[in-house]
Amino acid sequence: MIAAIVFAVLIPLLIAYCYKNAYSRPPNFPPGPPSLPVYGAFWIVLAHGFNDLASAFRKLGEKYNTNIIGLFMGPVPTVVVNDSKLIKEVLNREELDGRMDIILFRLRSYWKKLGIFFTDGYFWHVQRRFSLRYLRDYGFGRRDHTLESVMEGEIKEMLDLRTGGPKYPAEKEIVKGDLVYMPYFFSVPFINGMVQVLSRSTLPRSEYHALWALSRGTVLFQRSSTDMGGALSLTPWLKDVLPNYSGYKPLVKGNQYLLDFYRTLVEDTLKTHDETYDRHFLDMYFTKMKQEMKEADRTTYSVDQLVLTCTDYTFPAASAVEFVLAMLVERLLLQPEIQDKIHEEIDRVVGRDRLPTLDDRVNMPYLEACIREQMRVDTVVPLGVPHRAMTDTKIGSYDVPEVIKSFTSKLKSRFEHKLIFSSVT
User: Fold this and answer.
1) Backbone angles phi, psi at 156, to 5 degrees
2) I want to staple 224 with a disulfide (CB 3.0 to 4.6 A). Which of 69, 175, 247, 415 is the partner?
3) In which domain, by residue range, is 203 found?
4) CB-hemisphere CA count at 13 Å for 405?
5) How far apart are CA 1 and CA 7, in angstroms?
6) Tens-place pLDDT, residues 202-222
C-alpha cells in the first residue's frame, strides 16, 4: 500500500521534472529540439538522420526555421551553425577555438590532453606553432622537390601493384586479379609521404603491411564513433557496461595501431639523436624537448606529445584522402561520361609516357574541379571538429554560454550559377 502511494506521488513528479527539463534553456539560446533524460537531444538528432548527421541538422534547422540550432547533448548546451558566413566567423573567433574534454579524445592520447587536434589554450598554441613552423621545412603545406620525388616513387609502386600483381603476402589482400580493395589501395603513398615529412625516410614495399594495418586501424577508429562523439562521449560509463556495443573496444583497438607505429618510430629515432645535428623534424623536436627540460620548470614537450603530434598529422593521410579518391572512383564508374572527359584531359596535358606533376595542375582544371566537387558532395567530416566556447559570447543574435559545444555544418549547398562551368565541360 505504501509502495503504491509512493509510486503514485513520484511518477507525476518525475514526469513534471522531465517536462520542465526538456524545455529548459539558457537565456536567449537558439531554438532547437527538446532534451530527453541523460542524453539530451542526441537521440532526436539521430532520428532525423542516423547515417547522415549533417542532413539531420539541416532538417532540424528547417523544422525550427533557423540556421543556428540550439540543443543539449547530454548535459552540455550545444550550438550547430548551418550558414556559410556564420561558419567562417565561428571558425575565426579565438574565444570559440576551445576543444571539449571528452573520453573519445582522452582514450586516444594515453588519457591525457595531448596532440594538436583536440587541445587548446597555451599548450595548443606552443605545439601547433612549433610543428607547423618546422614541418614546412620538409614539405608539409608547401612544395618540396624531395617529397615530390618520394611521392612519385610511391605512386609507381602502387601502379605496379595493380599492373604487375602482388609481390608480398599482404598485397594479396589489396589486389586479387582484377579486383582492387578500396580505399586501402590508395593508402600507402599518402601515409609514407607523411612518414617522409616527419623522419626523412619511408617504409619499403616489403613493409607496406604495417602501413595498411595503420590505415585499417584509423578507419576502425573513425567508424566506431560519430561526428558528435556517440553515446560513449555523453555517458562514458558505457565503456564498462557495453565495451563492444558502445564502440569503446574498437576505438581503443583502432587507435592503438597509430600509437604503436609512431611510438616505435619515435623511440628508435631518439636512440640515435645527436643534439649537434638535426636530420629531420623528429630530431628538431627532440632537441627542443631536451633544451626545455634543462632550462624550464615546466614544458609542453614530451615523447608522448610527439607521438600524438605525428598521429594527428597522419590521421587525414591514413583515412580521409583515400576515402575521397575511392568515392571519386565510384562516381566515375557510375558516370563514365565524366571519366572520359578526365581521361581526355590527362592524355592531352600529361600524355602516357610520364606521371603528372604539380606543374601540370594549372593546365588540368576539369580534373581539379571534379576532385573538389567530390570533396563537397561526399564530405568526409561534414560537421567538422567540435569547438568549445572559452567565454560567454554571441553567435549571430543569440547568447552562447561558456563551455558550450559548437558544430559547423554546411553540406551539399545548392549552387545556382551552373553556366559558370559551361566552358569547362
Assistant:
1) -65, -40
2) 247
3) 123-319
4) 21
5) 10
6) 999 999 999 999 999 999 998
